[in-house]
Design goal:
InterPro entries: Glypican, Glypican_CS. This protein is mainly α. It has 20 helices and four strands. The strands form two sheets. Strands 1-4 form a two-stranded antiparallel sheet. The chain has a two-stranded antiparallel ribbon with strand order 2-3. The chain is rod-shaped, with a radius of gyration of 35 Å.
C-alpha cells in the first residue's frame, strides 16, 4: 500500500512538471505577419493569432508557422508577380535605351537624306534649269525609293537604281534631240543599251555599289536596334515557371511565416535561385553578344571616304557628273570640295551618334547573364556577419549543402513554332522581303536546339534527401529566331 502511494505521488509530480512546462512555453504571436500580410492587400480572415503547426505547408519549412495554406499560396503568387515586375522594369529600361539610339540614328539618317534631296533640287535648278523642271519627278522618285528601302520595303535596291538610270537616259536623250520626232519604242531601245554603251561613264556602277552598301548597312543597323528592343520586350514578358515560383517564395516570404521577417536571403542562395529561374534567358547570351558585336562592326562602316555621310550627300553631284558625261562628253566639273565641306559639317554628329550607340551596345552584351545579380542586389543580406544571419531557405544560417538541381536540358526553340516574326532578310543586292513569316514558311525552317549551359543549383532543406529534377514546360517566344535571322542579315555585310 505504501509503495503504491509513493508511486502515485511520483507520477503526479512528473505529470505536474510536464504540465507546468507546457503551460510555460507560450506560442509566439503572429502580429508581425498579420500586419505585413494585410499591408500587401490580403484579407485578414483566417490568419492565426499565434503560431500553429506547419504540416500543411507545401513550400515553406514545416515547423511552427504563422502561415495557413491560403496565405502560402497568396504569398507565392505575390512573389512571382514581384519578380516578373522587376524583370519587366529591367527590360523596359534597356528598351528605352535602344529606342533612344534608334530615334537618334534614324532621325539623323533621314535628315541626311532630306538634305541630299534639297541639295539636288537647288543645284539642278541652277545647272539643268528647264530639263530639271520638266523631269524632277525622276529624281524625286529615286529619293522616294531610297527612303522606302531604308524603311524596310521589299523593293530591290539595285533594280531601283538601274531603273533610275534607264529613265534618266531616255529623258536626256529626248531633251538633247528635241528637234527630232522620237517615238517611245526608240527611247526604250536606247535605255536597253545602258550597260553596253555606258553613256554615263563609270558613275552608275560605282554609285550603285556604294549606295547599295551604305543603305543595306544603315537599314540593317536600325532594324538591329528595333529587333533588339523587341527581343527584350518579349523575353521580359515570359512568365516564370511553377518551380521558380516555389523557389522565390521560399527565398522571399517563408522567413515571414517562420517569424523571421528581418532575415534577408543569403547572397549565394539568392544568386542560385535566380540563375535557375532565368536559365532560359541566359541561353540567349551567346547570340545576344554576337548580335551586339556584329552591329558594332556594321557601325564602323559609317565612317571614312566611302562612309554614310559622303555617299548620301554626294548623290546630287555624282548624278550631275554622269549627266554631263553623256550630254557634253567632257570632263565633269569637279564639285568634290562642296561634298567634302557638307560631309565634314555632319561628320562630328555622326561620330558622336556611332560612338554613343557602340557604347550602349557594348554595355548591353552581358544583360541576360547579369539579371540574377541585378535582381538580387536590393534583396540580399549585407554587412558584417551577414552570412551568419541570412536566410538560407530553412533558417538563419549559411547556405545549406543540401541542393536541388533543376534540369533545363529540354529547352529547345523550334523555328516552326514561330508565327508573325518579322523577316529582316537582306542580301548584298539590296533586296529584302520585309514580310511577315507565316506558319507555312516557318514550318520549313530547320529546328534550332539551343546549347545547354551549366545550370546553377537551388539550396533546399535537409528533408529533401533526393535530388529532384524538374523540366521547364514553357519556352521563350521565338526570340532566338529573331536574333539568328538578324545575325545572318548582318553577317552578310562583312
Amino acid at each position: 500500500m505504501d509503495s503504491f502511494i509513493v508511486a502515485a505521488l511520483v507520477l503526479c509530480s512528473l505529470t505536474a512538471t510536464a504540465c507546468g512546462d507546457k503551460g510555460g512555453s507560450k506560442a509566439r504571436s503572429c502580429s508581425d505577419i498579420r500586419h505585413f500580410y494585410s499591408g500587401k492587400g490580403f484579407s485578414m480572415d483566417g490568419i492565426p493569432q499565434s503560431e500553429i503547426s506547419g504540416e500543411h505547408l507545401r513550400i515553406c519549412p514545416q515547423g511552427y508557422t504563422c502561415c495557413t495554406s491560403d496565405m502560402e499560396d497568396n504569398l507565392a503568387m505575390l512573389s512571382r508577380r514581384e519578380v516578373e515586375g522587376l524583370l519587366k522594369d529591367a527590360g523596359r529600361s534597356l528598351q528605352v535605351s535602344l529606342g533612344g539610339q534608334y530615334k537618334a540614328f534614324d532621325g539623323y539618317f533621314l535628315e541626311l537624306l532630306n538634305s541630299s534631296a534639297a541639295t539636288l533640287e537647288e543645284t539642278f535648278m541652277s545647272t539643268w534649269r528647264s530639263f530639271y523642271s520638266q523631269n524632277s519627278l525622276v529624281f524625286n522618285e529615286l529619293y522616294t525609293d531610297l527612303r522606302h528601302y531604308y524603311r524596310g520595303s521589299s523593293l530591290n535596291l539595285e533594280e531601283a537604281l538601274n531603273e533610275f538610270w534607264a529613265r534618266l537616259l531616255e529623258r536626256l536623250f529626248f531633251h538633247a534631240n528635241k528637234q527630232y520626232s522620237i517615238g517611245d519604242d526608240y527611247l526604250e531601245c536606247v535605255s536597253k543599251q545602258l550597260e553596253t554603251l555606258h553613256p554615263f561613264g563609270e558613275v552608275p556602277r560605282d554609285l550603285k555599289m556604294k549606295v547599295t552598301r551604305t543603305f543595306v548597312a544603315a537599314r540593317s543597323f536600325v532594324q538591329g536596334l528595333v529587333v533588339s528592343g523587341e527581343v527584350v520586350r518579349r523575353v521580359s514578358q515570359v512568365p516564370l515557371s511553377q518551380e521558380c515560383m516555389r523557389a522565390i517564395m521560399r527565398m522571399t516570404y517563408c522567413p515571414h511565416c517562420r517569424g523571421m521577417a528581418s532575415a534577408r536571403p543569403c547572397v549565394n542562395y539568392c544568386s542560385n535561385v535566380l540563375k535557375g529561374c532565368l536559365a532560359n534567358q541566359a541561353d540567349l547570351d551567346t547570340e545576344w553578344r554576337h548580335l551586339a558585336e556584329t552591329m558594332m562592326q556594321v557601325s564602323d562602316r559609317f565612317d571614312g571616304p566611302s562612309g554614310l555621310d559622303v555617299v548620301v550627300l554626294s548623290l546630287p553631284y555624282r548624278i550631275s557628273e554622269a549627266m554631263m558625261t553623256m550630254v557634253e562628253n567632257i570632263e565633269a566639273t569637279n564639285e568634290e570640295v562642296t561634298v567634302e565641306e557638307r560631309s565634314a559639317s555632319s561628320a562630328n554628329k555622326l561620330g558622336r551618334l556611332v560612338s554613343d550607340v557602340t557604347m550602349r551596345l557594348r554595355d548591353m552584351q552581358p544583360y541576360w547573364v547579369s539579371l540574377p545579380r541585378m535582381l538580387c542586389s536590393d534583396r540580399v543580406a549585407t554587412g558584417a556577419g551577414a552570412e551568419d544571419r541570412c536566410w538560407n531557405g530553412m533558417t538563419r544560417a549559411s547556405v545549406s549543402v543540401q541542393l536541388i538541381k533543376i534540369d533545363y536540358s529540354c529547352f529547345h526553340v523550334a523555328t516552326s513554332s514561330c508565327c508573325n516574326v518579322v523577316s529582316v532578310g537582306d542580301d548584298s543586292s539590296g533586296s529584302g522581303s520585309g514580310a511577315i513569316c507565316t506558319d507555312e514558311v516557318c514550318s520549313r525552317a530547320p529546328r534550332l536546339v539551343v546549347p545547354v549551359t551549366q545550370r546553377p543549383v537551388y539550396p533546399y532543406p535537409p528533408e529533401n534527401k533526393k535530388v529532384v529534377k524538374a523540366s521547364v514546360s514553357q519556352n521563350l517566344p521565338c526570340v532566338v529566331t529573331y536574333l539568328l535571322s538578324l545575325l545572318v542579315l548582318l553577317l552578310r555585310l562583312r
